[in-house]
């Protein structure tokens, strides 16, 4: 939203969902480093969210569940997303639940609003083209739409695979154990649209991420 006074444009800040100050966030079992903050739409890069063993175990748990990724509420295969993915919602594992809880406490949203960890694997050449994570207002899923996204990097990538926000001119380079968070729960739809993002093609190496999407209302 913006306001023009005597020819000068002032932007009116909206409330962000994720509120914190300073460069650290303390949750039950660890201290999270805040490394980068883009104020609105809020985009935050966080360090030391997962340790190496947690990253490796998430990859291991998803290896025999991976399927070619689909997109949208109607789940269609598309060249928008050429990666392979797996939902860990039905995996009965203490560590998976602990990580979901940790992410929920970092963001300050009850874990019942989260869809369950989704693992993605990109091989060289694979990508996730520019998209929004929220569903179109006309879609069935929009009655309990997504409001924010937490992407955990489970591996380093030798070259490529950045998470790219073209409208913000912002690139996040994957680093094992780190995360990028962004939100799109603004009244001003133009702010939500600035969260357009892509997983750029992996050039060398392999990229593994875990995504947790939060919904406006509880999903379970
Ligand atoms: O691969 C990435 O860096 C972005 C993934 C993404 O956009 C998603 O999981 O919704
Ligand atoms: Fe996305």
TrEMBL record:
Residue spans crossing the bilayer: none
Key words, A-Z: Dioxygenase, Iron, Metal-binding, Oxidoreductase, Vitamin C
Domain Fe2OG dioxygenase, chain residue ranges per copy: 113-216
InterPro entries noted in UniProt: Oxoglu/Fe-dep_dioxygenase_dom, P4HA-like, Pro_4_hyd_alph, Pro_4_hyd_alph_FE2OG_OXY
Cofactor (UniProt): L-ascorbate
Gene3D superfamilies attached to this UniProt entry: q2cbj1_9rhob like domain
UniProt protein name: 2OG-Fe(II) oxygenase
């Amino acid at each position: 939203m913006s306001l023009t006074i005597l020819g000068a444009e002032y932007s009116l800040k909206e409330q962000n969902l994720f509120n914190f100050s300073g460069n650290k966030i303390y949750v039950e079992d660890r201290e999270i480093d805040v490394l980068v903050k883009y104020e609105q739409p809020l985009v935050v890069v966080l360090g030391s969210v997962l340790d190496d063993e947690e990253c490796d175990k998430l990859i291991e748990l998803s290896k025999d569940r991976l399927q070619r990724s689909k997109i949208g509420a109607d789940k269609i295969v598309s060249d928008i997303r050429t990666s392979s993915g797996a939902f860990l919602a039905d995996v009965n594992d203490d560590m998976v639940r602990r990580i979901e809880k940790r992410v929920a406490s970092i963001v300050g949203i009850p874990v019942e609003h989260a869809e369950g960890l989704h693992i993605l694997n990109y091989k060289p050449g694979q990508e996730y083209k520019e998209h929004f994570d929220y569903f179109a207002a006309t879609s069935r899923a929009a009655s309990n739409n997504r409001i924010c996204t937490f992407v955990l990097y489970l591996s380093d990538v030798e070259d490529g695979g950045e998470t790219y926000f073209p409208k913000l001119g912002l690139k996040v380079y994957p680093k094992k154990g780190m995360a990028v968070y962004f939100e799109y729960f603004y009244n001003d739809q133009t702010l939500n649209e600035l969260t357009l993002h892509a997983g750029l093609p992996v050039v060398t190496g392999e990229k593994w991420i875990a995504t947790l999407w939060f919904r406006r209302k509880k999903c379970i």
